[in-house]
Amino acid sequence: MPKPLIDVSRYDETPFSEWKSRHGIWGVIVKVGGNERAVGGRYADPYFSSHWDDAAANGINRGVYYYTDVITVADARADADHCVSLLGGRKPDLGIYMDVEDKRQFNLSKRALTDVIKAFCDRIEELGYRAGLYTGGYAWNNNMYPDELRKYVTWIASWQESWPTYVGEIQLWQQGTKRLSDGRVYFDDVSGAQDFDWASDAFVREIEQGGDIEIPRKTKLSYALAASEVMDHFVDHDAHGYSQPNRNGTSDVETITLSDGTDVSFQGGDRDCSRLVQTCYVVVGALPKGLLVWTGNERETLLSNGFVQVPLDGLQRGDVLLRDGHTELFMGDGIEAGARRSETHGIDGRTGDQDGGEITRSAFVRSHWTSAYRCMKKRPGEGEPIAEPEPEGKTEGGNMALPFFVTFDDDPTELFCDDGFHLHSIANPDEKKAIMDFYKLGHPGKTLDPTPKKFGIKDAPLGARYNDVMSRGAEFRGFDRFNKHPSLRATVTDIVRTELAKIAIDEDMIADVVAQKVIDAIG
């Protein structure tokens, strides 16, 4: 069975002997140091040695974590070297974990962040240690490529009652915080509580018996499980709150990736209880679009679209809960979740979850509900193995390549697009003109060089450089005007992505080019 752990840093004065005797702690993961811009760079945790020695004296398995906010492959490898140097020859049997939770990292593309994590972990392995990653469940599913990172030990924070199945197979789970005094698990940072974790059966076996961790192949989710993951997104993402007048959301479109690799899209903004349940099942394809659903007709709507009524005992994840005037989803393991009220405790308020209680989870209370409904339709491909996608920018030979280049043959009018796999001749005159115009915009007074070469974004994939462009808003002429016209963001984003895909420009020119495009779009 899973075994309990705690993770500690300089802020924790933890008597490991008491944790072991009172709560059976099997392991401890100690902060060894980090690299943060906010504190001036790389540092050592001053309590690492004492925590390490205390755990050893009590016969507790030990691992270490290293907090870093770096965003480049080179810095990640340097951090790995720094981390190992801080160990001073110590061997953490539970592994060394890269702590990834900085907002700047999550502004990278999936490709770029995955590469940064792999650089750190690969370097740790080169130095002879077990490598792992710590991050949150939402970031794991949406900000990186999990299938490329499962070869390392995966430690996921998801503060909830039960093991987080929505992230797939993992080895370590941070459940919340726990007090030594009362042994309760809290889903908040409460005074006197310690970060509390669990190790999976497979990981415990690997450590204690030398067994291998077996990662099952990912399979396509059922409608109910897919809808539940959409609900998890709404609960965990504060951009979504409660509103009846604005229950249809905003004009912004969000796209998230489910644990089976499926992308689903929906309108941003707020929901009320029935529209949220409807959204969860509509976006995964179980309910048709365009239905007018409220709690008064929800039962009939569900029963006429492949759902059946089920007893309130023996519920499964994704079952729809209903009573007069309110509806939510059963999330499994004794948890229910849904849209409940605005921050005014009324039917409307500011967009987004203002206090954490507008769209939220809580313990399932059977007496609160009068009926429950289960989707019986089979999702296309449900239960079938999912083929692992090729990483973005990977060449047939296995080396990383930039997603897009423009190349020029001896004839300067002959253009080719290299997507990392093949060269495609660009014959369309309009497309040629767009490339030429964009090049001139980024290189005033210059003409295209007819010498065969690649004009390229030399050090990063397109996605990473694009995110860098969009995050440098203060450098854009006209950015304030752009920021006041959110309806133009989709248009400008499309322009930038399209043009950068056609031609790569010098890094120093990026801000000016995007600014000009913004100004052109605003008029």
- Radius of gyration using CA atoms only: 26 Å
- Terminal Cα span: 63 Å
Question: Count of DSSP E strands?
Answer: 22
Strand content: 15-25%
Largest sheet: 8 strands, mixed, barrel
Determine the mean pLDDT.
76
Catalogue the unreliable spans: 211-217, 388-427, 446-490, 500-512
Strand order in space, largest sheet: 1-2-4-5-6-7-8-10
Gross morphology: globular
- Helix proportion: 25-40%
The DSSP helix count reads: 16
- What class, by secondary structure content? alpha+beta
Question: How is this structure best described in words?
Answer:
This protein is α+β, with helices and mostly antiparallel strands and 523 residues long. It is built from 16 helices and 22 strands. It has helices spanning 16-23, 48-57, 73-87, 103-106, 110-126, 137-142, 146-149, 201-209, 223-236, 273-283, 298-303, 429-442, 462-471, 479-483, 489-502, 510-522, and strands spanning 3-8, 27-36, 41-44, 61-68, 96-99, 131-136, 153-157, 172-179, 185-186, 193-199, 253-257, 263-267, 307-310, 320-323, 326-332, 335-339, 359-363, 371-375, 405-408, 415-418, 423-426, 453-455. Helix 3 runs parallel beside helix 5, helix 9 (223-236) crosses helix 10 and helix 15 packs across helix 16 (510-522). The model is unreliable at 211-217, 388-427, 446-490 and 500-512 (pLDDT under 50).
Which helices and strands occur, and which strands form pairs?
Blueprint: E1 3-8, H1 16-23, E2 27-36, E3 41-44, H2 48-57, E4 61-68, H3 73-87, E5 96-99, H4 103-106, H5 110-126, E6 131-136, H6 137-142, H7 146-149, E7 153-157, E8 172-179, E9 185-186, E10 193-199, H8 201-209, H9 223-236, E11 253-257, E12 263-267, H10 273-283, H11 298-303, E13 307-310, E14 320-323, E15 326-332, E16 335-339, E17 359-363, E18 371-375, E19 405-408, E20 415-418, E21 423-426, H12 429-442, E22 453-455, H13 462-471, H14 479-483, H15 489-502, H16 510-522
Parallel strand pairs: 1-2, 2-4, 4-5, 5-6, 6-7, 7-8
Antiparallel strand pairs: 1-10, 2-3, 8-9, 8-10, 11-12, 13-18, 14-15, 14-18, 15-16, 16-17, 19-20, 19-22, 20-21
Helix pairs in contact: 3-5, 9-10, 15-16
